[in-house]
Amino acid sequence: MPKDAKSQEGKVLKDIRQFLGLSQDGFAALLGSTKSTVSRRENGSNPMLTLSEIVKLEEALAQRGKEIKDFLQSPDTQNA
């Protein structure tokens, strides 16, 4: 995966974290991860989430009427 794609995924994770009003520590606790892993993911080093993390994230977003896809840009708007 190109570095810019990983950076975009990291930005999406950071946007979601900020939408949820969580610090990196709080986001890590929500996902059952660590702050250092959250930091690496936001920096694009390792943005991939596990299936259980995705489920936890979707549940947290659903409580606020959102889904992960709401934070993703469609291919038509990425270059706009």
Describe this structure in words.
It is a single chain. The radius of gyration is 12 Å and the shape is globular. The mean pLDDT is 87. It has one domain: lambda repressor-like DNA-binding domains (434 Repressor (Amino-terminal Domain), Orthogonal Bundle). The protein has four helices and no strands. It has 80 residues and is an all-alpha fold.
Per DSSP, the total helix count is 4
Number of DSSP-assigned strands? 0
- In CATH, the homologous superfamily goes by the name lambda repressor-like DNA-binding domains
Provide the domain count. 1
Beta percentage is under 5%
Q: How is the main sheet built?
A: none
Whole-number mean pLDDT: 87
Shape field = globular
Q: What does the radius of gyration come to? A: 12 Å
Structural class assignment: mainly alpha
**Helical proportion?**
55-70%
Query: Oligomeric status of the shown chains?
Result: single chain
Q: Uncertain regions: pLDDT < 50 for 5+ in a row?
A: none
